[in-house]
Amino acid sequence: MYKCIIVDDEPHAIEGLRKYIEHVPELEIVRTFTDPVKALREIPAADDVDLIMLDVDMPGITGIELARELRQKTDKLIFTTAHSKYGYEAFEVDADAFLLKPYQLSKFISTINKLFPKDEAELDGITDKDDFIFIKTKEETHKLIKVYFRDIIAVESKMNYVQVHTANRSILTYMTLSEISKKLLAYPGFMQFQRSFVISQDHIDYIEGNSIVMLNGIKISVGDYYKKYFNEFVDSKLLKARRRSS
Fold first, then answer.
1. What is the value of pTM for the model shown?
2. Domains detected in the chain
3. Alpha carbon separation from 157 to 12, 23, 110 (Å, rounded)
4. How confident is the model at residue 41 (pLDDT cuts 50, 70, 90)?
């Protein structure tokens, strides 16, 4: 278990990180601070940790200044900020990663995986191997079904089970969405815009308002928490005409 401290003057940003860290069971939040000055007073006297996540723009003392004082207290250091201009300063204080807000869960998991690599997959019922996974079915627990990432359209939460929708079958397995999403969101092309679904952008048929319709007909309403990321995704993929002025 890796111990983590979060310092951010915005409580909603800390809450967002809490939700992200729920998808990374090897991370444990031991302290959070909304006051960077308080963090400067208390962290030096505390035990060393494995990871400190710092916002950059904070009142009283910036994340860069705070990092200079706390760098020896942590193995890994990640800056989170809405401003890319701090990249060079982050490099100067030996930061391990720089997350530009807003960032998706997949980006966060990918960053954590790079900083704390695993020797082997730890998910029960899933074996890590190149471009596919093995999934246990609910009905036949001794049977493992090989599923390629490229064939997965969506994964749907069903209480303590998940339904894996592929191009040619649907598989029900005993696992939570949080457990399987740790695997999927680290693989390119998978995204989450609703609490109950992880989807593959390769299998989106069309978007209508705040709804996503997949190639197999599944319709997913974008959750309020995910709308900002959804709008950014659509904007990044939207083909726009460059009109000439008359």
1. 0.54
2. 2-115 (3.40.50.2300), 132-237 (2.40.50.1020)
3. 25, 14, 22
4. very high
